[in-house]
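User: Quick sanity check before I run a bigger batch. Here is a single chain. Can you write out its predicted 3D structure?
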Amino acid sequence: MWRSFWGLVPLFLLGLAVWWVGSSVLSFLTSYGCLIVLVLVGLLSCYASRDITSIFTPATGLFGGWVFVKVAGLLTGTSYANVFPLLLSFQSASPIVIAGRVVSVVITLLVAGWFAFSGDDNKLEASDVDGLHLVNNPALGTARWATWQSMKGQVASGWPKERGRGVIIGKLQGQVIRFLANPPVSPHVLVVGGTGAGKSVGFVMPNIYAAAMAGDSLVVADPKGELLQATGGWLQQQGYDVRVFDLLSNRGQGWNPLETVQSEQEIDLLADTLIRNAVKDIGRETAYFFALEKSALMAVMSFVQGLPPGQNHFLNVMSLLIQPSDVLGQLIKNRGPKAAVESWGQVESAKTSPLVGLSARLNIIRQTGSLLAPEPGAGIDFSMLRARKTALFCILPVGDVSLKPILAAFYTFLFRRLCYGQQNINSETRTVRLLLDEFANLGHIGNFNEVISIARGYGVNASIVLQTLSQLRDLYGEAEARNISGNCGLQILLGTQDFETAQIFSRALGYAAVRMRQDRVNLTLGKRYLERGADEVTVRRALMEPAEILRLPAQKGIAVIDGKPPILFRKINFSDEQLGKEVLSHGPGIVPLRSDPPESVNLFDLLTMTDGDSCNSDIDGLF
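Assistant: Done. Predicted structure follows.
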């Protein structure tokens, strides 16, 4: 008997515990039931929208219920002192309070639905492909859209603060994505976007801001001068020395190529770059004349380089190129340095003079005024990019290919001075960030294929902005284009209507294993409506097909970081951001005008000098 009694005690205690827990839970649900419902709705909204701010939807609903109860109380003459405790519970209350609870729930559901269906459109990005559910099947494909967790180590969130680093990509789940380019990933960026895709406001302007926050020097290829107009004044306020190389007007500073070149090898590179970008196609028939024109240009440049400061500029090169071949040859052989004489020897041995064709190809330089003939000491010196915070804007015309020789030469020697001529690179060396918008309009940059491979080691980060990937291939050829794009640790697509570009990005995104439904129907007469079924099968599918990339929504973009899943992000419109409005409010700042072009060399005076005179001293006397 006693054993039976003591055997019932544990059951009694268990029942007592269940009763106590149940009554406590019931009491808790009664006291805070409405709050629990609202919080659950907020959590579901946060999960569905991938937006952390949606967690505050319950507060919005409670505030709406509080306003309802207060207004209803005033209208009915009823006073409610502590409204929130009444709204949070499921206890019996007046009809107005019950109606307030309903209003709170309804408002919370409405706000949660707004977050879920009109938010960042990334709510299915990691687990779905165009509505098809992803499954784990490595044999078929492992591609996934990136999440913040999967990008860890190569990205940071938020706009950069002072001394912060990173390349702005766009927004994911409402937060700004910054590409950090931690080793071994390359810091260079390839951006592709058709006309109207938002390359300037979505990539270049945000990254001008990012570079300024990091304290980097900037080189910006600026079509039509719009980027200088938008950010020049703000950069000056941030302590930047703003320089302008303007091919459209007489603003800014000039650049003297003949003061930049430092050896016969560089004169050869300058001549090659100028002529290569002035000739549409160097085939077998034109290769011979290309070599002749190059030799002639090298001879004249070597001669003019030896003139005194103020006269050793490119306008004098153009003045000598229009002279008769025999007269120019006599001057070079009698007065020129050894390098000029050797180059001219190849020209003299030719049956036809290359001067007429060469002068015609480079005729556009005559119209640039003091752009390539600045006053001594007043031109652009590339070493300033390392010495102090400098923003160099290169303003270029869109669609005018005649200026490509000048642009290509400018950027060729810019890269050469930043890389090959830079010594003692360390952590204190100022990084130079190049934002090369409309890269195809810059022409064929000499040795660019090699430079981009070593630029990181010299603190040079390049962002190449194109309209289509075929532009890079047309400019540098298939092999070099592959090497250039392969040296870019981040590749961004802002939108395209070029099928080849869409194909390349589709392959870069990879393939995924997805679950697909297959319907079965027996087509035998009499069984068509009786034997039906459906199966789910796992198939291999591109993360995005080329046709889907062509239909990419205007507000979306794709980014591929080496070693990380691809990112489906929302583009930034810098002019709509609060900090963007602050940057853009300062205008272009103060940009000086260039001086008038100098007078050209008087060839007659050079020819009438006596042979026994010293060339340099006599020329000093003439000018």
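Residues 119-125, 610-623 have pLDDT under 50 and may be disordered.

User: Great, the batch can go ahead then.
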